[in-house]
Amino acid sequence: MILRQGVTCSTCNEIYILRISVGHSSYQEHSFACSNCGETITIGLDLDQKNAGWQFKIIENCILSDETLGTIINLHPEIVFSEELLHVDLISPSILYMSKMQEKLNQLPSDVSKEDYSDAKKNWEKIFLTHQEWGIIGKIWSLFAKNKDAQVKKFIIDNKDSIHDYRPNLTACEIIYSFIMRALAPIRANRAEEIIEKIFDEYENSDKELFNSFCKYHAREIFHKNMLRAHGIARDLFINYNEFNSVLWSLKKGESLPSNFAIASINFEKTKKIYGDAYECLGSNVLTLACISNIMKKRKFDTFENLTLAKYIEIDKSGKGKCFSDIPEFSDLMKYHIPKIRNGSHHGTFVFNHEHNQISYSPKANKSETISYSEYITCCVELFISCMTVSAIDIFIYDQLRFSAMKDTAGIV
Ligand SMILES: [Zn+2]
């Protein structure tokens, strides 16, 4: 369904006709820069999915208007579409998407029962509405990362009705792991599972004592710090979810993005620091992968080819992936870990050009670069996915592998 609503820029009175596609959440929010004055306009939409009700909410710099003539803006919270269609009236991104879907559906058997359909819908909601769980999950994750065991147990029991597939004795680790996997599912969760399987295969075929000493170090020195940093990145993304969701939806589903696409919401003030923060988080948290790559090369977890562990921890984040660049499953996670964008993001040189939806920045003095906003958001979401994948690996090591290693090495002196 598309809702058509006129809005007027409060700063300069420019008129827009918004054509907002209704997504599946209970709330969606869209921002864009006024093409006349450049100030950000933000509008919210409360949705009652059960009763098909809706209510527009003015968030920033606009008033609702009855005007029927103005610049058309198509906004879709969950679908990425070509930028050429951004101002075209009468097209529907959903319909374009449906026709793509229809091609896929035509290949499916036509005798799907009502029960199968209802199960499919429930499974689909588990995967695509994870952001609505963040209020509860974020608290569990934060308490757990800070070692507040008694508080996290109480919080889980107090909120059991809001926890996905709750059962007694469900642990914080299991809850966070399930959430991460659903947030990445289907395609990116499969990839995370493949990496975890690779690590487990390596464990099965390696000297167990090498893994045992690593698991001890990981539990003592790495795990909680990594979880705390990753919590910060997940919080940044889920609090600003409307800025990222259409790209996250596409990447989760394994779709390739068009070269220039329209973003459902553009609020640069909310997103400009997120790349740099996610870059720092991933650069620190890959310590787990670096240690495992040493074991894969038949060395102790803390013995690098040319470095000591203390030296590795100290080196610049841009060099952290070098030691596992020969392991494709690990190095793929670093594909969007790009120092020059991080420097632009963290050194405050980012300048947003609202006419071209482009960011210009200076990674070094006397050097200027540009990146389209859609590409920038893709880089942010890819870093988020990498950070979450490393968190899933961290939980697997802390919650599963550590106990296997302890059991298998019992008796070894
Ligand atoms: Zn304006």
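^ zinc ion complex. The two ends are 66 Å apart (CA to CA). The chain has two domains: 2-98, 186-408.
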